[in-house]
Amino acid sequence: MQLVRPALDHLPSYIAALERGWSADSIRPEAGAEELARIRDDAQAFIASMEDREGKGPKVKLPDGTLVNRIPGYTRWMWDGEFAGSINFRWQPGTSELPARVLGHIGYAVVPWKQRLGYATSALRQLLDEARAEGLPYAIITCDETNIASQRVIEANGGVMIERFLKPPQFGSKPSFRYRVAFR
Q1: Stretch (H or E) spanning 105
Q2: How do residues 66-76 score in pLDDT, each as one tens digit?
Q3: E strands along 17-152, which residues?
Q4: Mean pLDDT over residues 22-41, rounded?
Q5: Closest Cα to residue 94, out of 136, 51, 139?
Q6: What is d(CA 80, CA 56) in angstroms, rounded to the nearest whole number?
Q7: Do the strands 67-68 and 60-61 form a parallel or antiparallel pair, or are they unpaired?
């Protein structure tokens, strides 16, 4: 499995995953249908939106429907000959701090039919290598307290749990862990 930049060549496989009901957004399942609509409207613009290092793209819809300004970020797709999942990195230039509405620097999701193959662990390792270039000393990654698989992925990549916290209401008010992963 390798990380690839989203591209039109990969788009049919990504669409197939969305049509099977997958969404990278576990809190807003309707996000998959919204992405399909964006792709139908303008596939080229959708692909271009996956790399926004200046945070100039359209506003981001939070789980409670609130629209907020985008921060710089990019998405990579997990690829093993077909779409296997996505991972993204977001940051604020010049600081490791994030706005309160952004729970972590990195988020990832593997399609259900490719889980338990080590893809998330490999994707995080590869993304950390790429994200180091942004000049931050570390990345913050959060996961639900009950998400043992994600905890293992983060810890396998050097993540150290720094706090337990309750996610804000717009993210489901779930007990969660915040990890710090130092860039090597």
Answers
A1: none
A2: 889 999 999 99
A3: 51-52, 60-61, 67-68, 73-79, 83-90, 106-110, 138-144
A4: 89
A5: 136
A6: 31
A7: antiparallel
